[in-house]
């Protein structure tokens, strides 16, 4: 649930800013930053005492590497996080579907699915950097 909320609020904010015809179209980076900030804060407050704030696979893996989380639970947690992310993104796409259809720039659409920098509009170099840094 936590990862789904992160994706819904974070990528939903990106979709609101980047997709043509939305009320927030071209409203700026601050809307996206607030969306992701809320996307981290809200599930942390809601589920922190339940799951230990495991809303991102990097967090789960980091805790396991540092010895603060059992390795036996890493794979199930990451599977749950990935499924939550898929569910969250599916809701974003379903909600913003009419605006995806209106948007002609493929880089604006791509930005709603990934962390590729919108400053350079998803150049080949930024896609490479996003992939390498994401690993």
UniProtKB/TrEMBL annotation:
Classification via InterPro entries: Aquaporin-like, MIP, MIP/Aquaporin, MIP_CS
Keywords for the protein's UniProt record, in alphabetical order: Membrane, Transmembrane, Transmembrane helix, Transport
Bilayer topology: Multi-pass membrane protein
Transmembrane portions of the chain: 25-47, 78-96
Subcellular location: Membrane
GO cellular component: plasma membrane
Gene3D superfamilies, A to Z: Glycerol uptake facilitator protein (1.20.1080.10)
Name this polypeptide is given: Aquaporin
Organism whose genome encodes this protein: Streptococcus pneumoniae
